[in-house]
User: Which sequence fits this backbone?
């Protein structure tokens, strides 16, 4: 095989490879066309009762949780304060009794 | 005072239920009636602690130190209420639990400062009173920054103009809760100061018995 034939076959092979592979490379290189993200209530209005169950966020549990936390924190602190005061006053009474006995 | 506060708290849900719904947030906006008074009590406790700390640093009186420590505990207590009720409100109103904006972040920093104050007092050993007083001053300096942050920087948090613009139907339950929280604050502060006084008397008696 002459050198000219060999070059011609190499070029043909290269063209075939480029012809089959290039579209795939181009497809990988350019991102697919995407629709711009839409925000809620921009394309259509959906009545709230038609929302899927998993997208509904009821307000009542948040409200109840907030009030429960406030009440709970206050009551726990009050109990802790009461217990600490009771313990210190009892110790103080004992200490005074001990000091008076000596 | 404590009984009056608890009675007002018991009646508060009725008045809050009577208040009209806010137009965009609806039911969840009613967290406001506890969230804002708790935040104001947190600021009041911070100022009490800060001013008492200045007095302690200048005059060195133990009574000022006792008041400062009592107020610091209340800052942490009301801070817990604010920092939990706020995200519960935000999750429904904004769709997120937390935003690292100026108001929320500086409130968290305030709470962490006063938690550090209490840890210092609890585990710092003798002589940490003055160091803790310095921490309280940093905490007090943070309060104006927290208050005006919503008016200065972009945030999703409501501005300070909300409270003065309340309609009368919303204003009454809000001020009812404010008075209830104020009475509670004063009752807790008084009791906590008494505890500190008793503890100091006990320590003195034990020291005399040993010495």
Assistant:
């Amino acid at each position: 095989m002459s050198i000219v034939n060999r070059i011609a076959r190499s070029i043909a092979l290269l063209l075939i490879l480029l012809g089959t592979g290039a579209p795939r490379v181009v497809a990988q290189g350019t991102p697919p066309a995407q629709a711009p993200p839409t925000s809620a209530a921009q394309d259509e209005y959906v009545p709230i009762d038609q929302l899927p169950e998993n997208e509904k966020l009821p307000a009542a549990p948040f409200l109840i949780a907030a009030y429960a936390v406030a009440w709970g924190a206050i009551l726990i602190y009050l109990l802790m304060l009461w217990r600490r005061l009771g313990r210190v006053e009892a110790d103080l009474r004992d200490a005074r009794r001990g000091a008076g006995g000596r | 005072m404590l009984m009056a506060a608890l009675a007002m708290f018991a009646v508060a849900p009725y008045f809050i239920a009577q208040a009209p719904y806010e137009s965009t947030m609806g039911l969840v906006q009613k967290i406001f009636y506890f969230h804002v008074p708790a935040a104001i009590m947190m600021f009041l406790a911070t100022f009490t602690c800060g001013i008492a700390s200045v007095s302690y640093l200048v005059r060195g009186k133990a009574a000022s130190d006792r008041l400062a420590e009592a107020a610091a505990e209340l800052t942490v207590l009301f801070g817990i209420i604010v920092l939990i009720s706020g995200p519960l409100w935000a999750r429904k109103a904004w769709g997120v639990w937390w935003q690292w904006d100026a108001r929320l972040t500086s409130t968290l920093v305030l709470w962490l400062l006063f938690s550090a104050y209490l840890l210092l007092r609890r585990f710092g050993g003798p002589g940490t009173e003055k160091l803790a007083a310095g921490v309280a001053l940093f905490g007090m300096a943070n309060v104006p920054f927290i208050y005006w942050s919503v008016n200065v920087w972009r945030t999703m948090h409501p501005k300070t103009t909300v409270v003065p613009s309340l309609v009368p139907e919303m204003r009454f339950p809000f001020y009812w809760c404010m008075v209830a929280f104020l009475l509670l604050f004063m009752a807790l502060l008084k009791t906590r100061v008494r505890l500190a006084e008793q503890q100091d008397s006990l320590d003195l008696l034990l020291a005399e018995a040993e010495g």
Notes: Chain B has a mean pLDDT of 92. The CA atoms of residues 33 and 177 of chain B lie 6 Å apart. The interface with chain A takes residues 2, 9, 13, 26-28, 30-31, 34-35, 38, 77, 80-81, 84-85, 88-89, 91-92, 184, 188, 191-192, 194-195, 198-199, 201-202, 205-206, 208-209 of chain B (CB under 8 Å).
